[in-house]
């Protein structure tokens, strides 16, 4: 029987506006090529969820309304997700999902949506100046090209702990000031990149390798 990799897709039914499900399809393809079967569970409103049952967690982008609904339900999982991330297990969070890993996002009218508070970052929402367009940036995995579409501007609150995923060559990334895109903490990657981001094979292969490594550890198999 083929070995099964388990992926949790957080709120796939709600956070799916920007085509980020392509990231999971690409990972499935790469893992299938290595001989693994891949099961993807949609973890949604009210569902039971234990992060440690999974080899990889994916959290895509979404529109503001859905993001507000998801944010409330998500807080139930703060502990299990916090432990998963702290233990160095792999996760990819895009745009709205990335924003929700942080402390909060605040609209320009002043209302605050509480995030998971796992990573020291926050987002300020400016609907009048949306950041839309092609992006290109340099990462430890090589150059990445993608597309961004967001009003939220993300700022790190602890620059020792969080490292940017990349340095901008084209586009905005986290915000118009810092010249960086996304976030890396242990094996968790946050990014504003749609496209989907994993059409960039360098980063897709690196994440597939992290998943296999975590799977082997979870199954007690030799590395
Ligand atoms: N609604 C959020 C923003 O505009 C996230 C958008 C997204 O996920 N693409 O900042």
TrEMBL record:
Domain of life according to the entry: Bacteria
Annotated CobB/CobQ-like glutamine amidotransferase domain residues: 6-200
Keywords carried by this UniProt record: Cell shape, Cell wall biogenesis/degradation, Glutamine amidotransferase, Hydrolase, Ligase, Peptidoglycan synthesis, Transferase
PROSITE patterns, sorted: GATASE_COBBQ
Name of one Pfam family that matches: GATase_3
Annotated function: The lipid II isoglutaminyl synthase complex catalyzes the formation of alpha-D-isoglutamine in the cell wall lipid II stem peptide. The GatD subunit catalyzes the hydrolysis of glutamine to glutamate and ammonia. The resulting ammonia molecule is channeled to the active site of MurT.
Protein name: Lipid II isoglutaminyl synthase (glutamine-hydrolyzing) subunit GatD
């Amino acid at each position: 029987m083929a070995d099964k990799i388990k992926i949790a897709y957080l709120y796939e039914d709600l956070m799916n506006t920007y085509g980020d499900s392509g990231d999971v399809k690409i990972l499935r393809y790469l893992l299938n090529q290595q001989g693994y079967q891949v099961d993807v569970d949609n973890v949604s409103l009210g569902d039971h969820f234990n992060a440690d049952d999974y080899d990889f967690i994916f959290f895509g982008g979404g529109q503001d309304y859905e993001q507000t609904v998801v944010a409330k339900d998500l807080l139930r999982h703060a502990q299990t997700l916090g432990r998963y991330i702290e233990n160095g297990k792999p996760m990819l969070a895009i745009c709205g999902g990335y924003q929700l890993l942080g402390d909060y996002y605040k609209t320009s009218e002043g209302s605050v949506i509480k995030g998971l508070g796992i990573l020291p970052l926050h987002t300020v929402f400016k609907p009048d100046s949306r950041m839309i367009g092609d992006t290109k940036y340099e990462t430890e995995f090589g150059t990445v090209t993608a597309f961004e579409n967001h009003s939220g501007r993300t700022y790190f609150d602890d620059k020792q702990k969080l490292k940017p995923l990349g340095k901008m060559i084209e586009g905005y990334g986290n915000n118009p000031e810092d010249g960086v895109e996304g976030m890396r903490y242990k094996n968790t990657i946050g990014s504003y990149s749609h496209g989907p981001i994993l059409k960039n094979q360098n980063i897709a292969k690196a994440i597939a390798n992290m998943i296999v490594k975590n799977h082997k550890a979870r199954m007690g198999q030799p590395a």
